[in-house]
Write the structure tokens for this entry.
Amino acid sequence: MLVRVNSNKTAKPVPSQLSELARQDAFWSELKIRGGSKLFGEAEPADYIYQIREGAVRTYKQLSDGRRQIGAFHLAGDVLAIENCATHRCTAEAIVDTTVWFAKRRRLFARLTKGDIPAANHVRDLVTRTLEHAESHLLVLGRQNSLEKVAAFLLELDRRLEQPDVMVLPMTRRDIADYLGTTLETVSRALSSLQEERILSLVGTNHRGIMLHDRSRLAQRATSV
Amino acid sequence: MLVRVNSNKTAKPVPSQLSELARQDAFWSELKIRGGSKLFGEAEPADYIYQIREGAVRTYKQLSDGRRQIGAFHLAGDVLAIENCATHRCTAEAIVDTTVWFAKRRRLFARLTKGDIPAANHVRDLVTRTLEHAESHLLVLGRQNSLEKVAAFLLELDRRLEQPDVMVLPMTRRDIADYLGTTLETVSRALSSLQEERILSLVGTNHRGIMLHDRSRLAQRATSV
DNA sequence: CGACTCCTTGACAGCGTTCAACAGTAGTGG
DNA sequence: CCACTACTGTTGAACGCTGTCAAGGAGTCG
């Protein structure tokens, strides 16, 4: 299922969180994985770092009885597994067919030990941003009701996808639910309710497309009942 | 309320997460704050980093209507605000009377730009550990019920406090509730229920003391209903 | 003593989960 | 082309966990 290629052809421009490193093609190799297949598993040795080129990835932790908490969705340009741990702390799965670049973690950290200050700052910056996201996520999970959760999710994705008219969700309702600490039925009801209020329209097959009509009213829903 | 002193007397040994830096007394100044008073506020400029010497601190985010999510409790030895952001992303308050050391963030980061590799690794390590904690916390908040939450909280604090017999909580039930995304009544009920099961005993004024009788049964409660 | 904070417990309601049925779409194979 | 299956999403109904409201006890402090 995994195809390894050399990335000597230049890919189409993708926003990158590792701009300076990303420019060095020799540093990265390319990998294509099918939707639903694993990129890496929790507690596995973390030998590589990854950068999404196209597609989407979910990272999650799981309890022994199957309950799943998705920590983040990763889209084109995002970097995964940058934090310096010997083993991965969560599982990463492609949500749809996805292209990633990967590089030996050792090669990156060799730079740091050689005193590459810009690279060190960059890495610290990425970890900090990941932390920032997690901390905001804590507030949503611990203190917001289901409608606020779904509204917050939509606003986050709207900001990140930057698609002016219709945003097409790569993930299922269950994924959204596991991201927000609720159930797929509750997510579906919240979306229907927002459609009822004419704040958005669900379009396309499986209602994966979402047209936002009123972002400011959606933002109100995200912080008050 | 704030007292600034030079820390030329050696403090009693405290586990430190910033060992090499902590040894340099000239680097740090000492600060004593009363329980309930703020160390720094959300969105304030982040000019200092802090290290708890004695006492306990809570860091939290708050919604406009007052709902509060505590991201972490910080105990003796813990470092706060190490992540490189221009402004603090949460509020930090002393829970009880607390002694902290603080240092100009600029002085630490000046080292990093000068290529102090061990310091850079150390900082990255601290941020990563903070991230690790937040990610585990996400799972608790999103996917565990109230009994599991309280059990997980007790196990975490038991591990960190390292008091063999009775652990004395510095925080109120409300603090615990705001840490676990629930209410103080629910926390109280969970603790009573665990006492009923003879897994622990509540002791002392305000039942702030907790004697764990059966850590393994408590651990069972933390992951299954 | 009185005011205050913190904790516990009970009663009740409500939000969200659970269970179930159904619709729409895609893929497969006869 | 159609039957069949699998997957996804929506909606309804009932239950239950947890939040809300309230009362009371215990300790602290001025």
